[in-house]
Amino acid sequence: MLLEGKSVIVTGGTGAVGSALCDVLSREGASVAFNYEKNKDKALEVQSHIEENGRRALAFQCSVLDKEGVAQMVKKTAEEFGKIDILVNNAGIVQVMPFPLIEEEEWDLVMDVNVKGMFIVTKEVVRHMVMQRSGVIINMGSIGGVRLLEVPVHYAASKAAVGGFSIALAKELARYNIRVNTVVPGMLSGGVGLNVPEKQYNEYMKYCAAARPGKPEEVAEYVAFLVSDRAQYINAQNLLIDGGL
Amino acid sequence: MLQDLRKDRDYTYYELTQSMCRQCRKIVDAQIIFRNNRVYMRSVCPEHGATETLIASDAAWYLKVINSPQAPDRPVNHSREISKGCPFDCGLCSWHEKACSLPVFSITNACNLKCPICFTYNREDKKYFISEDEFKSIIDWIIESEKEIDLINITGGEPTLHPKIFSLLEIAQRKEIGRITLNSNGIKLAQDEDFVRKLAEYGVYIILSFNTLDREITRDLHGSDILDYKYKALENLEKYNVPTTILNVSVKDLNDKEIGSFVKLMLKKDFIRSLTIQNMTYTGFGGGSFFNGENSQREHLTIDEVIGNISRAFPQVIYEDDFVPLPGSHPLCYSVNYLFSMDGQVLPLKRIFSPEEYAAVLGKKYLIHPDDNFHTMLMNKINEIWSKEDNDPERERKLQVLKSFISQLYPVGKNLSAFERQRIAEKNIKTIYIHSHMDEDNFDVSRVVRCGDLVPDVNKTFIPACSYNLFYRMNDERFWVEKQL
Known about the structure:
The structure holds two protein chains of two kinds. By secondary structure, chain A is an alpha/beta fold.
């Protein structure tokens, strides 16, 4: 197993990619804590999957923008698991809207959840990692932030920001043996990929070597390797998993 | 005498077509003439003389639409050569100019009403219910011939009385068929809630005949007061969220002033997707002897009169210019107005798109599909409206409506399937169709050759719906016994 004895926090654990992450990381031996915002039934389902894999599970209902809630989640996880080895910043939203119709509030909402939320959670978790002098952070980017694709500009901007955040943080935390990478999924069959207009979906498929959308589980398998000790030399990268584009 | 002959005619000749004589039912020559800014068809039977029928109340409107560009259609599979001439070679014959856009299945002659306005023939002495084998064989050959069909229509009689209706719907559940529509007078839908629930499971779209909100007029039109059935049917359809079209048959000077109320009803209720207004046709079992008006005249309601009624009912909201001929059909057969309707806002698509773009959006079919092309055109339009510095007083409203539409198709934090998005698009883009059927007074060969509403049968033939009603149905032993051809 890749992650025997590790403890992990996954944000947005009830989404398509988030639940796959919880499942795969626990299957690989990690105890998993995750947060979710609304879907309590799904959270219970994710929790039982983790436990079926023989690992400990913690579920927290709070937004990544809720500083108090996030602080509680991190504190409680550290207490229960004894440490936090891995953070996967997966929570994110997308709003399909053409540029002329994006208003300031909508820009703020997307940037808040996708960038500020990542900042809030990371800041809380990194305190523990610095004390431990070790850690791995994966931030979820998007193909929309790195390629010429028709995606909403606020979403693309937020995902490009994830890449910049990761690189700078990787440099700053290197001295504490903390690695930070961005995983950049292409079109997926679940999660925000479901909300892609047919036109953009078809265009992606036209140029994708795999000629199919990726599966959330495939992203989770990739992350499981990247956060493992076998990937110790991989740091400060934008790592694409896009089927070949 | 000579002076009298040399007097100017009181009309202006426009063109020549062919119509029919109501008495001998032969095809006769007919002129299209303008008089006092109105447009008439003047048909002349050598034996029974001339008759005039109003076909448009405004000559300017007529001239504007009559030559509107029509989308060229692909050749149809003709099964008959020309021998007797239109409309007697139906099969289709090689003169027919339109592919099938709507196959119309009469699955029964049974009906639980005997409406004075009924424009079809339904024999009562011998009940007919289409067999599953017959229905399947027709569906099979249509798909073989047309490859795919946007929608089919199942009608009667009253099709909900068919004892095997759900078996037939099962047979019609083919991937090549986009949508199944089922006509109903609403009585069964009112009486049997479970029947409506089952229809919802089959994804059927209901076309509910609903002509008036006035109890007295209901009796005039249907022979009895059936208004409560209509309300109950609507209640059940709404409960199970069955996509519904209101079919309103409008009779001049009787219920034509109520059209606005039905438009309001459509805009108010999410499950009501569209409103079809049909003019009264004075033919068939009941309509052939139905008269209205002070002088017992057969007063024909024209498309432009219906448009006028609607725009007067919605001043500053719906304009006459928002209606356009359906590109695939004759301008005197179909006029259509697609409108965004959400959050209390109404915005006809015609005001967003140029005439060329609008024609491209509509295509040759009856339904707008929110596909790639539609999406691209909408995005282009948003940028255009937003960037253009003009004095369009509706600019902000247009952008607001378009944004609301996109927000509903792609809600934040909720992933919808393509099917769910299709349903949301349908809910937010309502449609008003004005569909003008023909009867013995205004039958026009030039219209029928461009008809895509076709009645299929097991012999692999198609007959345009109006030709079928006027020339073939009474010759069809399933529906009538009188041999007239």
